[in-house]
Amino acid sequence: MRVNIKVYRDPGGVTELALDATDIPAACRQAETQGYRVITAKASDQWSLSARIFQGRSFQVPLFCQELLALLEAGMGLVESIAILAHKAKQPEARRILTDLHRLMGEGRTFSRALEAEPGAFPSLFVATMCASERTGNLVEALRRYLAYHRQLNAMKDKVVAASVYPTLLVVVGGLVVVFLMAYVVPRFSRVYEDVGEAHLPVMSRFLMHWGQVVGNHAWVLGLLLILLLAGSIYAFTRPALRAALERRLWRLPAIGEQIRVYQLARFTRTVAMLLKGGIPLVSALDMTDELLRQPALKAGLDTAKRLIREGKPVSDTFGAQGLATEVGTRLLVVGERSGELGEVMERIAGFYDDEIARTVEWFSRLFEPALMLFIGLIIGGIVILMYLPIFELASSIQ
């Protein structure tokens, strides 16, 4: 959701930010980690389905990273590269952000400090990664790492979306066919059987014909109700409270809840791995990634894990006990602690989680798609059979 926050920081005074976060407290924590003191915070009315579809994001961080990386690899300086990107930006908001970056860096601010001045455009993870790269002096490698992280993070999301396209298409087409039969074909068949009399029709055919007469007499009213129901469902689904309630119900389902947990662990583990490889301490990395865990049990486990790690407990034991890693992941964390390559090992663990989710999505697609086709076929076939069943019975009685 989009949250509008009024904040204060010295120097700079009072300003307003627009942050993307899971809820209002998460947005407040995000602003506080960047050095702001929150005055007020409220959900933005612009965070609606139409805004997300038609307006889109005015500034795309991955595209900015890709273009900046290309210019830096070509031998240009950082300030010069940002000036070029600001000059070529077509969208007014993107041009404003890049122009402000160039101005702030020209005033002597570091790259990460300039990014912090635009918290609504740059995620805190990106800012932290760039800040760590300034200490190591390897900005190009940090940009490469962030781009790779972003691509890997979106790869699994793209697989899930791609797997849902065909079932969604089946449901839409099947639903349109059913609506056409019930709203157009069945009412005309019901007129054909008016002279026969309802007593001579089978019970199910009689019910279908009665429905056809109702639809034929009140088509506009039923159509308006259907449109209002669809619009109301879309509007309700865009409400954060309803989405949160739906998520809680999905978490309680044994199979689906476990896969959602693994998906969140994959994002969490991959993000921590990127931050560790960028030189950020483990506890600081965990503080930055707590918003990626939406399940209450995982959030509570992460809070406990941070406390235990500060006390000196091993990461593998802590993650395993708090449910932040699977059994295989816990064993790999032991190897990472012994070798000192915890970031590399956590990235490998995230890859295992991604593979597990990919196998589940593939298995679900192979099982669900034929079952859905069979279900839609039975509905459409049942309607057609009930329409023609009286004709078959009349023909058999004549014979």
Can you offer a commentary on this structure?
With 399 residues, this protein is mostly helical. It has a domain at 1-56. The protein contains 17 helices and three strands. It has helices at 24-33, 49-54, 61-73, 78-88, 92-106, 111-116, 124-136, 139-192, 203-217, 219-237, 240-252, 254-277, 282-288, 296-310, 315-321, 327-339, 342-398; strands at residues 2-9, 13-20, 37-43. A three-stranded antiparallel beta sheet has the order 2-1-3, covered by helices on one side.
Please state the CA-atom Rg, rounded to the nearest Å: 28 Å
Q: What order do the strands of the largest sheet run in, or round the barrel if closed? A: 2-1-3
Approximate strand percentage: 5-15%
Order of helices and strands: EEHEHHHHHHHHHHHHHHHH
Shape: elongated
Number of helices: 17
Task: Indicate the low-confidence ranges by residue numbers.
Answer: 45-56
Number of strands: 3
Largest sheet, in brief, is: 3 strands, antiparallel
Give me the secondary-structure category: mainly alpha
Mean pLDDT over the full residue set:
82
Distance between the termini: 68 Å
Percent helix: over 70%
